[in-house]
């Protein structure tokens, strides 16, 4: 829908009084001519003062953000560099060894918009772009893009170009308000290329309270190795992954997993599809289709397949969900054990200083405080096996 604009105008109403006494009339005219300019002058001075105050406040906030962003970018240089990569364009290369769980990028969005809007998307983006500094503006328009209409000129049709850049690079943040999806643009994080399954080695998460996107190393990364994240759920077959990436991002994936020989690729596909099916089976515990013991057996199988595949993402959430199951069945020891595993993996994926890690630490201290505690029939539910805790 087009953005509707309302024009407003200021109406000046004039009133006159006829007085029989000519002296009184003259006095009123003199009084009016002296008070009105004085009042208008005061109002103008007040508005100017407010404008100056707000401008200085805005500049102070902007300067503070720029300084913090400069600190982040200076830190980047000690961890990675953005380089041209044959067949990919720009990519992120580690300039030193990076340990699993280490913070790679901390970044504020250039701007955030709700995922659903009732106005023109190009008009909304143009508004947000008008608020950026020249450096931020250049950062945005330096990003790559796909699905830009061939009949348009990117040098002229900047509004449509902005839409293509946003659609290609926007990351979900949920930053507008609780329960409302939103998306932001993060120019430094946007340089991360895609990898499937075991090929990606960094993951990102949004921190609402800090207003930051944080990227952590999921695995140890060697100096000179490319940092890769994932653009989608890759627990699918190679053909399905490639079709989705071609449609959404206009590239043919040649990551290490997609480049496997056919036999090994089929084995990988089987593991990934089995993991996807097992996740769906695990979810049936919520409806009472399987009990706690069966649910934890499913978790163990997902974990084992992930280890075989080298797919290590989502383990913090999986272990936390397992802790939920055993807490519902009132098993103190198993709740503590699964919470400990979740704490470890959340530490790698979202940071040791994250809310998720804090929650798991508290759960180990007081398992009976879990919101699901004793919501199901009490039973002994398996704790994590050695293969998970090792």
TrEMBL record:
Keywords: Membrane, Transmembrane, Transmembrane helix. Residues 1-10 have a biased composition (Basic residues). Signal peptide: none annotated. It holds the Pfam family SET. It comes from the Eukaryota. The keyword Transmembrane applies. Residues 1-27 are annotated as: Disordered. The keyword Membrane applies. Residues 75-232 form the SET domain. Gene3D superfamilies: SET domain, Tetratricopeptide repeat domain. The chain crosses the membrane at residues 36-54. PANTHER family: SET DOMAIN-CONTAINING PROTEIN 5. This is SET domain-containing protein.
